[in-house]
Design brief:
Length: 262
């Protein structure tokens, strides 16, 4: 396992550094615009343009944080299995469970390396939209303090649950992608059939979410008063993501060992 982790990290570290720098630029693109706008009344007519740029930069940043390590990171077996290097996976002197787990751990690490800094970038840039509004009544510093007080004091339990749910969902997403790739390669010999892979992915995700929904209806009582329903719901979905991740991972390894041929 250690050798797999070391090799995968060595292969990805330069890309991670480059992407991290690019994400910083995307996440912070609204910061200088907001500073100029906050210091000058003349910038207020461009408030709509500023918001558009801020939203676009935020969406690009969040999209890259999730999809880049998911689709192009070390955890996506399809990058090797569906390419000319596919035979190398079968010839490596490592058990598939160790190989897949090592790649997915590096993929998860890459996701966290992107996600944690971006979270803090966005908490500092997004409040600029508030102070630039003509009806704004709070300063930038007050908005920052309010956001962090809300996230890490008033709703700390929800913030922690969201953090672990995000991790569980990314692990689940990695597992689904690898499950679909190995399932496809187990029974198909053509390069790629995008429609089938999208269909398999939809079914795998739908089954998981539908199961979580049914369990939530059975376990979680109707919302009343100050009941901590969000915490319970997040924990329920986290549990479902992890359970189905383990199930799909087991099926993936079984298919890879017995059915996959290059």
């Amino acid at each position: 396992m250690i050798s797999i982790l070391r090799q995968e990290w060595k292969a990805r570290k330069h890309t991670i550094a480059l992407v991290s720098a690019a994400l910083f630029v995307f996440a912070a693109i609204g910061l200088p615009l907001g500073t100029v706008g906050a210091d000058s009344e003349s910038q207020l007519p461009f408030y709509g343009l500023f918001i558009a740029l801020l939203v676009i930069s935020a969406l690009l940043t969040v999209g890259c944080v999730f999809f880049l390590p998911l689709l192009k990171g070390a955890g996506n077996i399809g990058n090797d299995l569906l390419s000319d290097r596919g035979y190398l996976l079968l010839s490596l002197p490592k058990k598939p469970v160790v190989l897949f787990a090592g790649k997915m751990i590096i993929g998860l690490a890459e996701f966290l390396i992107y996600a944690v800094p971006v979270f803090f970038y966005l908490t500092f840039s997004m409040p600029l939209a508030g102070i630039l509004h003509p009806a704004a009544s709070k300063s930038y510093g007050e908005l920052i303090r309010k956001i962090y007080y809300f996230l890490f004091i008033e709703q700390l339990n929800v913030t922690v649950c969201v953090f672990f749910t995000a991790i569980a969902f990314f692990v689940f997403a990695q597992t689904v992608v690898n499950f679909v790739v190995v399932l496809y390669r187990s029974f198909m010999r053509t390069r790629k059939a995008s429609f089938l892979m999208i269909l398999f992915t939809f079914i795998a995700v739908f089954v998981t979410l539908k199961t979580a929904e049914r369990l939530s209806d059975l376990i979680i009582p109707p919302v009343s008063g100050d009941a901590p329903v969000p915490d319970i719901l997040l924990l329920l979905f986290t549990g479902c993501f992890l359970v189905f991740s383990a199930l799909y991972f087991f099926i993936t390894i079984l298919l890879f060992e017995r059915k996959v041929e290059i």
